[in-house]
UniProtKB/TrEMBL annotation:
PANTHER family in UniProt: SUCCINATE--COA LIGASE [ADP_GDP-FORMING] SUBUNIT ALPHA, MITOCHONDRIAL (PTHR11117:SF2), SUCCINYL-COA LIGASE SUBUNIT ALPHA (PTHR11117)
Name of the protein: Succinyl-CoA synthetase alpha subunit
Species of the source: Variovorax soli
Pfam family, any one: Succ_CoA_lig
Boundaries of every Succinyl-CoA synthetase-like flavodoxin domain copy: 180-284
């Protein structure tokens, strides 16, 4: 038996459909009531819809807020506690819009239907409605002859009638996207409904009715209903459908007009459960591939339309990329002898106002040309292009970093995108560049960095050395010794260099120095065009010995600098500060021009270079600093030839390193460069910056920030490797080992490992027998992340082992550790083969360098511990410099104090 609504419904449907044409979906005669009108989304969207539609919202509801109004450009909308109160006040409506939370949506629909017999359409914006509630909503709509749109949709819009009901179709300015034309849109995605309309407009196609159907399990007004209404709409010549996996609505739709269908979501078929709007179960017959087949059969085509393979018929085309919709529609309509609605309004091609390829060698198709910006943006862009360096927004940086991060899976940290494993293959100079320039730099950078830092290593006769030596003789640890020296290298030490640097950068930028200035430009750039007016004191009347030595060192190394060439062309003799500024400007120019670093970062280069040199120098006893040499290296040789690795090694051990020593040393520098913003040392550095206030960077003292890093580093700090060194010394003390780098060392490492395992096994038995659970772990063995496999590997240790193997380098201590973990398993002490972790590698590399001085008596165990500690400080000062600079540029003032309620007293 049919009820009355079935007799008055339209179309050949087995269920109620009241809309016979798309013209009836949204008209100027419709009057709207909005439930939860003062909610967050509605209060933003409804005023725009009301104004665009000429004032079609008669009232809204918000329980407990009756008497309020929602202000709109077209007048205030009254608010009532419920729908009945609004009707009692004389307001009439035929459309309801539901913005209620999921749990309240069903009751809201019931209220609309129960109290308003004039209701004909409901638009549900709410998403994540329970399936049970959706079924009841469906039943209520069918029983009362009401068309329901949604849920989880953005409502509907009609470009011809200039009406929008429900959500935010067309955005804040619907008229910009919804230009009247001949194409209807039906989309599972609300956002893409607007995007498709805009794409069509660019290609010359306007729209009639746009329906955001939503993509819940129940799509109340679905593709079959749309196809029926499309057929009866004289305005609509064709349609675009955007479809996602899930449901069989499109299969049942009978289209009598051309259609372009965009089917997306192939990737969802690889998942094991529903995703997105409603999604499709893996392997379901309603997934993306199934829907593609449905449309290909409907259109009589064999494939997907792409610009390179335009598959289409007069019935339609299938695309899987929304960017292809305009071309597909134009082709289909041309087959129907139909031209676009109006002239195309533009193209979808990328039209960037800014461009930076970071000097990468890109193919032409990946290098879109920069186009002039529209007014008034063109003038703003031109102004921005005069800016030197990048600028980043300030934010809370506690336990955060824009410089370093750690991969939780591999435990490999990185600095400015370069992993510490890659950093382990770089020279000391390249790691300085990585910290300051944000990449490892090039050969010329290294030729400038080495002498600039080396110039400040020999501290003979300087107060920095006196402070460091006094701290050393007082029995302080290496970090306190270096902190004493760093405290003296304050702002005034580099003020002249900083002023000179700022002047150079500004004047060369004004003169048009290019982004890149290699060998040719460095020699060919016309330095005569540099305006020297109001220049700071860059030269003196008499030669400056330190300045001359530094310039000679750059020349001896083959370094190039247009800034130095210009400086030397000035009358008089360049000052030391000016030379340091010129070197700093050369290092900074490329990264500044590419917006890789900020102007603030560049301005601090002279200070950093002085500090790095001072800390390396201060780590050596005062007796090793002489007027003309440092640790046995003549001053000219140190400036003109020695690498930073050789200089730092000499400071550490008082001798020039061998090739293998240098490899081990530089590998350690890279491995220890950083371990992320959560490290104790990094927190100390960032805390010192925050104490001065990074939002006033001119007040932040870099030397004090380095002192913050140094004071937060100690013997117990992870990474210095001394615990592993002590363990290795114990195992090898009576072995007769002479050279740990010799391939034929003559030791039976398996036997040594067996002895060590037996000792450890007996130790564990005794501890357990005594009832103690405090059992010490073997240093360098096992790792909380790399475990629970039959054979466990630390990828960092594997990387270093392969690196050693590739260059034919041998390390008996590293080999012993590999034998040790295997023996632990073979002897039944471990249930699987533990990994050799990176701390063992650090210990092995360190001890290899220190073994022979230790055996010869040149250093004692106390000296060994000091050396192990100090070598950790060298790379970490670079990593913490990067953290300091990052915090200076992007950090806000932080209050790191703990709330009093969280503090406790321990008696």
């Amino acid at each position: 038996m049919q009820s009355s609504w079935q007799k008055t419904g339209v179309g050949d449907f087995k269920y109620y459909v009241g809309i016979s044409s798309l013209t009836q979906v949204a008209s100027r005669e419709d009057r709207v009531c909005v439930l939860n009108i003062l909610g967050g989304e509605s209060s933003e969207v409804t005023p725009v819809s009301h104004a665009y539609s000429g004032g079609n919202v008669v009232f809204g509801t918000a329980p407990g807020k009756g008497g309020a109004v929602l202000e709109t450009p077209a007048g205030n909308i009254p608010v009532f506690n419920n729908v009945r109160d609004g009707l009692a006040a004389g307001h009439r409506f035929n459309c309801g819009v539901v913005y209620l939370p999921p749990s309240a949506a069903r009751d809201g629909v019931a209220e609309l239907i129960r109290v308003n017999p004039e209701l004909r359409k409901i638009f549900i914006i709410t998403e994540k409605i329970a399936v049970h509630d959706a079924r009841e909503i469906r039943a209520m709509g069918q029983q009362n002859g009401i068309d329901i749109f949604g849920a989880n949709g953005l409502g509907v819009a009609d470009s011809w009638n200039q009406v929008r009901i429900g959500g935010a179709l067309g955005g804040d300015k619907p008229g910009d996207s919804l230009r009247p034309g001949s194409i209807a849109i039906f989309s599972n995605s609300g956002g893409f409904s607007t995007t498709i309309a805009q794409y069509l407009r660019m290609a010359g196609w306007g729209t009639t009715t746009v329906i955001s159907s939503g993509k819940d399990v129940y799509i109340h007004y679905a593709a079959p209903e749309f196809a029926f209404a499309l057929a009866n709409d004289a305005r609509s010549k064709a349609a675009v459908l955007y479809c996602e996996p899930g449901g069989y609505y499109e299969l049942d739709a009978k289209f009598t007009k051309p259609v372009v269908a965009c089917v997306v979501g192939r990737w969802k078929s690889k998942l094991t459960r529903a995703v997105g709007h409603a999604g499709a179960m893996a392997g379901g017959s309603d997934d993306a591939l199934a829907k593609e087949r449905w449309f290909m059969e409907k259109f009589g085509v064999d494939g997907i339309f792409t610009p390179d393979n335009p598959e289409f018929s007069a019935k339609g085309a299938l695309v899987t990329n929304i960017a292809h919709i305009p071309a597909a529609l134009t082709a289909v309509m041309r087959a129907n002898a139909t031209l676009p609605d109006f002239a195309p309004e533009g193209t979808l091609a990328l039209k960037p106002w800014f461009g930076s390829d970071e000097s990468l060698e890109l193919p032409a198709e990946l290098r879109p040309p920069v186009v002039p910006a529209l007014a008034p943006y063109g003038d703003q862009v031109a102004l921005l292009n005069t800016q030197i360096g990048g600028v980043v927004p300030r934010q809370t940086m506690k336990d955060a970093s824009g410089a370093s991060q750690m991969d939780a899976k591999t435990q490999v940290s990185s600095l400015h995108g370069t992993s510490m494993l890659d950093a382990a293959t770089l020279s000391f100079e390249s790691n300085v560049a990585l910290a300051l320039l944000h990449d490892a730099g090039g050969e010329n950078d290294r030729k400038l960095i080495a002498p600039a830092i080396a110039a400040y290593v020999n501290l003979h006769g300087r107060p920095e050395l006196a402070a460091a030596q006094a701290s050393r003789e007082a029995g302080n640890a290496p970090n306190a010794v270096l902190a004493a020296a760093a405290a003296i290298v304050g702002p005034k030490r580099q003020q002249a260099a900083r002023e000179a640097l700022v002047f150079m950068l500004e004047r060369f930028h004004a003169a048009g120095l290019g982004t890149e200035f290699g060998a040719s430009l460095s020699n060919s750039f016309d330095i005569a065009q540099i305006d020297t007016a109001a220049a700071p004191a860059l030269t003196t009347g008499s030669p400056d010995a330190r300045a001359q030595a530094l310039m000679a060192a750059v020349q001896a190394r083959g370094g190039r600098s247009v800034f130095l060439r210009w400086l030397q062309s000035l009358p008089g003799h360049p000052t030391e500060a000016a030379v340091l500024a010129a070197i700093s400007a050369t290092l900074a120019w490329g990264p500044l021009s590419r917006k890789r670093i900020s102007l603030l970062t560049a301005q601090n280069f002279p200070w950093w270079l002085q500090l790095f040199g001072t800390l390396i120098g201060a780590s050596a006893d005062a007796a090793r600093h002489e007027a003309d040499r440092f640790c046995g290296i003549a001053q000219p040789q140190m400036l003109d030839n020695a690498s930073l690795g050789e200089i730092a090694f000499a400071a550490l051990l008082g001798r020039t390193p061998t090739e293998n020593d240098l490899f081990a040393f530089q590998t350690l520098v890279g491995l220890l460069l950083t371990n992320g913003p959560g490290a104790i040392s990094a927190q100390g550095a960032k805390g010192a910056v925050s104490a001065d206030g990074p939002e006033q960077p001119e007040r932040v003292q870099l030397n004090k920030a380095l002192v913050g890093f140094l004071t937060h580093t100690g013997y117990a700090h992870g990474g210095n490797g001394y615990e592993g060194i002590a363990y290795l010394i114990e195992q090898f003390k009576d072995s007769g080992l002479d050279d740990p780098g010799a391939p034929n060392h003559g030791l039976d490492l398996k036997a040594l490992a067996a002895k060590a395992v037996d000792q450890y096994s007996q130790y564990k038995i005794k501890k357990k027998s005594a009832g103690s659970l405090d059992i010490a772990k073997l240093p360098g063995v096992n790792h909380p992340v790399f475990k629970d496999k039959p054979v466990n590997l630390d990828p960092r240790e594997v990387f270093i082992a392969k690196l050693r193997e590739a260059r034919g380098d041998h390390n008996v201590f590293h080999d012993f550790y590999r034998a040790l973990v295997q023996q632990l398993f073979d002897a039944g002490v471990s249930r699987n083969v533990y990994c050799v972790n990176v701390d063992a590698v650090i210990a092995a590399l360190l001890l290899k360098m220190l073994w022979q001085p230790l055996q010869s008596g040149d250093i004692g165990e106390r000296d060994l511990e000091t050396a192990a500690f100090t070598i950790f400080l060298y790379p970490r000062m670079l990593g913490c410099a990067a953290e300091i600079d990052d915090h200076l540029n992007r950090g806000r003032n932080m209050d790191t104090r703990t709330a009093a309620t969280l503090c406790k007293f321990v008696a």
